[in-house]
Write a structure and sequence with these properties.
two-stranded antiparallel ribbon, Rossmann fold, 43 helices, P-loop_NTPase
Length: 962
């Protein structure tokens, strides 16, 4: 039988549903790209509507495979091609282009498009293919037939024979779009047709949605359709707007909005052109709004087309949001008339549900649209059923809490417990916002007043970083809006966190009101009253001194009460009296068994800082920090590491101090610090910058205008002190004097303050001396007397060192000698080295070269990398002056701890700096682990380092030690 050629009418003729494309090219001929008709989104079911013709872009390889198949079938060779790609990538466009080219080339074509809504129509694909062939006036089963009228009664082999018969009349192209949604009968027929392809020239082309499950068909070609790149989208825009240069911002934005899906890009460009717009960035908001409208219209159409089973399943999936197993989801959906698998396939086909496990709704918009088909009462009833089902199925707390967050109060005790456990887990993982959301949801449940205060307390801690003012208000409500049913432990914890925030005025007022309302309140033993006393002491630094509300008795000798010990220690330290007793009481308060509130422990650690017991203070603050982190108390944790930074600065560990400063801001962002606490953070920042000789950074720290409410209190005085030091470093003695005096004016209410914590007299005396004003010596002697009263050797030595410059001649030298004597052996390592260097310079100025040489020899072997920049420069200067006096005056290393390392110690130091552990070093050098440990301790002492980190820095390539 001769091959029959089908002539396709031209555009506008009644006989083809497809626009005509160029004829298949001959070898070597140039043919323009096929043209695709893309229906408007939301209008795919109405093919008569206006369409946008868009050239295929970045599809050269795919088109080449399809054209090769068409040439093959024209030459009498059968084949099959599978077009695979994601939704909206243009699979249908490629199939349409192939069908058009095949028709123009004389190939008989049969085309059918599948959809999820028709996947249950028996042999629907076969019927549409028959109809397409009948429209072309081909003979089926020996005579003309219409639309496969009897196909439902015919067997699959007979149906395959009908198509083979058509192919015997001429080459046949069978194209099935979205074949994954074909009905079971049509799928069985397609599989059978694969085995009949060699009986006549036939090309079987199918497009399937890429889900990761479709492999290449054996013996056939697979075409993977990609999404458009940004360059491809730019070409598409240029083709649609000839003569206009596409705005790169427009193409980038459009690519982000559409994901490079041609099915979205084409109608957007068509509508933009129809409105007379240009492809510029200014139109992106309108494009985004249009895509949202299109998406909403598609959702409405798709959901309206769903059968009852699929709609019920969609609602269940939407309300569960992927948090429950699919078995529970189907249980929630209720009994379905059909099979669950068929309903799920339809939902995936419409793009309403994601393919794969776990089964999830496509997005939040789809979930809202699905649940929007129910009334408010219906949505609430479905959500409550979902939660009850999840609780009975014992789903994990995190998932159950997320479900509870979406429903109205259920009125069950397990709901509050679940939300609290899930919130605690979120907090531990660092998700404070998620914890706050769940705790806020728990507060909507009917709970007892005591339980409500606990929830409010947890919510306040979770909110402090993002909503500090709201957090403070919640803590105040816990303290003020309470009755006798709330335990004292909850009130104590709330007061502790409120005081740690730094708003001591509010804390004083609120704690006083709470104590007055509590029956059986005993001011002498109450930890709550002790917290109020701390707040009262800080308020006394301001211009308005509050009326005393707390009269906490002092601890008597032999008293072991930790509350009285903490308050008495702080009281003694603030008055600068009895340092030994204050130290012992602070140690008692910091014992683990004391179990004191965080703020009292911070106060005890501050006492140890004033007493120069820096190692104990650091250990106590580390314990407070760890406990605060476990409890989620960000403000307490930030205060602990900030105070620890001050301890490290006093010990000369600048690197550790900087790390603690960064940790304080990491625990509580600077924007969340209360105005009365913020000066303390900036003051420590300035002190660290001054120690590192970074004057510009120090000036920035003390320079900004503080927010209202930050101009009084202990923290404000500390900042004024550092501001004065910055002015002194800049050479502005008058501004420094004013800053120091302003710091001193705030100490009247707290009885002058501790001479170590706020040495404003020392700074003022230096400023007076440098400005040439009278009164410097008198003020210096007053500061020395106060340091003597406090009696801590390190504090006395540091005061003598700093005030030596106020005096001249022998009096200056005497103060320096006294500073060296008092500072030696204390934790103030940098102050001691500075005193030795200054005394060596003074001896050299007096001509006592031998004494100067002996003194500078005590520090000349120290590595400059481990010293502050100013001190290292001073040591080099004095050493240079001695060297210029002659070889006999060169600095000689002092014997003892500062001497050079032995050969064995040098080997151990090198291995430790390289990261070796003690056992590894012992094996390498054939020593005992205990001996390695002892040698390392001696090495640290000789090199004046505090650990392996500083040792590694010292032994790094290029350093003097290496």
């Amino acid at each position: 039988m001769g091959r029959r050629v089908i002539v396709v009418p031209g555009p506008g003729s009644a006989g083809s549903a497809w626009p005509v494309a160029p004829v298949l090219p001959t070898e070597g001929s140039a043919v323009p790209a096929p043209v695709l008709t893309v229906p408007w989104l939301g209008e795919r079911d109405d093919r008569s509507r206006r369409t946008a013709e868009t050239p295929l872009v970045e599809r050269e390889d795919e088109i080449a495979v399809l054209r090769r198949g068409i040439r093959g079938v024209l030459a009498g060779r059968s084949g099959q091609v599978t077009v695979v790609g994601p939704r909206g990538a243009g699979r249908s466009a490629l199939l349409a282009a192939a069908v058009r080219e095949a028709r123009v080339a004389g190939v008989i074509t049969a085309f059918a498009s599948c959809s999820p809504g028709e996947s249950a129509v028996h042999r629907g694909v076969i019927n549409r293919l028959f109809a397409d062939i009948a429209d072309a006036d081909c003979r089926l089963d020996g005579g003309p037939r219409s639309c496969g009228r009897a196909s439902a009664e015919r067997s699959i082999p007979t149906l395959c024979g009908d198509f083979v018969g058509v192919a015997s009349q001429g080459p046949l192209l069978i194209a099935v779009d979205d074949a994954q949604w074909a009905d079971p009968g049509s799928k069985a027929w397609l599989e059978a047709m694969e085995h009949r392809l060699q009986q006549a020239p036939m090309l079987l082309v199918r497009s399937v949605l890429a889900t990761g499950e479709h492999a290449a068909v054996p013996g056939g070609d697979t075409v993977a359709v990609r999404l458009l790149s940004e360059d491809g989208l730019r070409q598409l825009v240029a083709d649609r707007f000839p003569g206009s240069l596409p705005d790169p911002r427009f193409t980038t934005g459009l690519h982000g909005l559409t994901g490079g899906r041609p099915a979205l890009v084409a109608p957007v460009l068509e509508r933009l052109a129809a409105a007379g717009g240009e492809p510029v960035a200014g139109h992106l908001p309108a494009v985004s709004a249009h895509l949202a409208d299109v998406r909403a219209a598609e959702l409405a159409v798709s959901i309206a087309a769903l059968p009852a089973d699929a709609l019920a399943l969609l609602r269940a999936i939407a309300v569960c949001r992927g948090l429950l197993d699919f078995d529970l989801v189907t249980n929630l959906a209720g009994p379905l008339a059909g099979r669950v698998g068929d309903a799920l396939r339809q939902l995936v086909g419409f793009g309403l549900v994601r393919d794969g496990a776990p089964t999830r709704i496509a997005d939040g918009t789809t979930a809202d649209a699905a649940l929007g088909t129910l009334s408010a009462a219906g949505r609430g009833e479905l959500a409550n059923r979902c939660v009850e089902l999840a609780y009975r199925a014992a789903v994990p707390d995190d998932q159950l809490a997320e479900l509870l967050a979406q429903v109205r109060p259920v009125g069950a005790s397990w709901a509050v417990a679940t939300l609290r456990r899930a919130a605690e887990r979120r907090r531990v993982l660092g998700d404070d916002a998620g914890a706050a959301r769940l705790l806020g949801r728990a507060l909507r449940e009917p709970v007892s007043p005591a339980e409500r205060r606990k929830l409010m307390l947890g919510l306040a801690l979770a909110e402090v970083a993002d909503e500090p003012e709201l957090s403070d208000q919640r803590l105040q409500r816990v303290l003020l809006d309470t009755g006798p049913e709330v335990s004292g432990a909850v009130l104590l914890e709330a007061a502790d966190h409120l005081l740690a925030r730094g708003d001591t005025r509010t804390a004083h007022r609120v704690i006083a009101a709470t104590c007055r309302r509590r029956s059986g309140f005993e001011a002498g033993t109450s930890a709550l009253a002790a917290l109020g006393r701390l707040a009262q002491e800080d308020c006394a630094a301001g211009p308005v001194v509050p009326a005393p509300a707390f009269d906490v008795p002092r601890a008597e000798p032999g008293d072991t009460d930790p509350v009285r010990a903490a308050t008495t220690a702080v009281e003694l330290a603030r008055r600068g009296r009895e340092p030994g007793r204050a130290r012992d009481l602070a140690r008692l308060a910091l014992e683990p068994r004391a179990n004191l509130p965080h703020s009292l422990r911070l106060g005890a650690a501050w006492v140890l800082l004033c007493a120069d017991e820096l190692s104990e203070a650091v250990l106590g603050l580390t314990d407070v920090h760890q406990d605060a982190v476990r409890a989620g108390a960000r403000a307490v944790a930030a205060n602990a590491v900030l105070l620890r930074a001050r301890c490290e600065l006093r010990r000369g560990n600048l690197g550790q101090a900087q790390a603690d400063l960064e940790a304080a801001v990491a625990r509580l962002p600077e924007r969340a610090w209360h105005p009365r606490a913020l000066p303390g953070l900036r003051a420590v920042r300035a002190e660290a910058a001054l120690a590192a000789m970074r004057l510009d950074e120090a000036e920035r720290a003390v320079g900004p205008v503080l927010p209202p409410g930050a101009d009084d209190g202990l923290a404000a005085g500390y900042l004024l002190l550092q501001r004065g030091r910055v002015h002194l470093a800049k050479g502005d003695a008058r501004a420094a004097l004013e800053a120091f005096r302003a710091a001193g004016r705030g100490t009247t209410g707290r009885r002058e303050g501790n001479p170590v914590d706020l040495p404003w007299r020392t700074g003022a005396a230096l400023a007076l001396a440098r400005s040439g004003s009278d009164g410097a010596a008198e003020l210096a002697r007053e500061a020395l007397a106060r340091a003597e009263t406090w009696g801590v050797p390190g504090a006395r030595g540091a005061t003598s060192l700093r005030l030596a410059d106020v005096f001249t001649g022998g009096e200056r030298r005497a103060h320096l000698e006294r500073a060296v004597l008092l500072l030696e052996g204390t934790a103030r390592r940098v102050d001691f080295l500075t005193a030795v260097t200054e005394l060596a310079a003074a001896r050299l100025d007096d001509g006592d070269v031998a004494e100067a040489t002996a003194l500078i020899g005590r520090v000349a072997t120290l590595r400059p990398q481990l010293l502050p920049a100013g001190l290292a420069e001073k040591i080099r200067d004095v050493s240079g002056r001695l060297a210029r006096r002659g070889p006999d005056a060169a600095a000689r290393p002092a014997a003892g701890p500062a001497g050079a390392l032995s050969e064995q110690e040098a080997r151990i130091a090198a291995l430790a700096a390289a990261g070796r552990t003690n056992p590894e070093i012992a094996r390498a050098l054939q020593l005992s682990s205990r001996l390695v440990e002892l040698r390392l301790t001696r090495i640290y002492r000789k090199l004046t380092v505090t650990g392996r980190g500083q040792l590694a820095e010292l032994m790094s390539p290029g350093s003097a030690a290496s």
